[in-house]
Amino acid sequence: MRQSRIPLVLAALLAATALSSPAEASPARHRASNLVVESATELGPITQNPHNAARDNGQSVRYGNQSVWFFDDTILKNPDGFLTSTAATTSDLDASDNITLTSANPLDERSTGVPPEFVPFSAAETAFQQQHASADCTNSADEYCGTVFAHWPGPAVVDQARHRILVSYGKLCRGGRVGTPCESGFVGQAQGTGLVSVDMNSKTITRLTATNRPADIPSPEGTDNTLFFPPGQDWGGQAMVLVGSTLYGYGKCTLDGCAVAKVPVAQVTDISQWRFYTGADGNGNPQWSTDPSKTVQVKANGAAGSTVYWDSAFGAYVNTFMQFQSQDVQYQTAPNPWGPWSTPTKLFTAAKTSGIEYAAFAHPEYTSADGLTKYYTYYTSSTGAQMLVKVRFAKGS
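The chain above was modelled as a monomer; its predicted structure follows.
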């Protein structure tokens, strides 16, 4: 199958080198709650599966005594290959000496073979790709010639009551010629967002089926009932946080910020149960609507997503992100998932390379016992590596 090379993997991904030794990042001394950044240190690239040459994104959650990670476009070596989604798990929960993440899937740490696709392709998608596959589409009359699908994993939450991890993903089509419905463009053509359930008891990975959608969501292979929301809404695609039995999903993003929606996690597939934040009333009480067009932006947007989680040391929800075309990794805090969110402040500046740095995320499961040492990753296209950064906080006066 013809693979689509897009800017996020870049030609520079062919290089396999990374920073040779830890280096000081550029910390910003500031206050948020009662904490100040004391230091920020680059620890170098995390250790990944030996068949992995490069993979971007890189978000994680803790399930039991393991950290489970999810990645987007992945370039393989020995043998060469290209996947649109991969995942891994590790029991290495001490990041002070970096992180070892060599497993090939999210269910078995001992499996270190060639990673498979994490998000399953539907039978209809597979058939469509095969039907329109071609080594040369130059003079083809088929407007879908060369089209392939991609499923990019994003934010994840642990639904402990149902022994599962829910992972948001965005579906794309790409690989088509310029001017066709699935031309590659910058990254491809968005088709919508859905959820993957990783059942930690049955060890199964399933794309969930949406119910009670207000309208069908079209896709080149036909209506895709696993898509929850159409392009432009993408609730949960930017970030997700589970608070008790309520899932909050951030979406409808612009460069200026993102809105938020909520749903009982037990009814996450029922689109009629989702509610959309429209602001606070005169007493500061949150207002929710069934109409997503009435939402307001609440938090900053991050390139390739952000991490929202509750942080006990801050005593607040934290949003960690790296904005588009910026080297600065920032964060902001809020008393509630809907806000009000503080003005963003800088955590550290990612080391500049010849490529592009983006997809910065927090990994709360690696926080030290005193809550003051925290770990973050960002992706660098010059090497294809996930770079690990340790930030040490101090209590301010």
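Residues 1-22, 24-32 have pLDDT under 50 and may be disordered.
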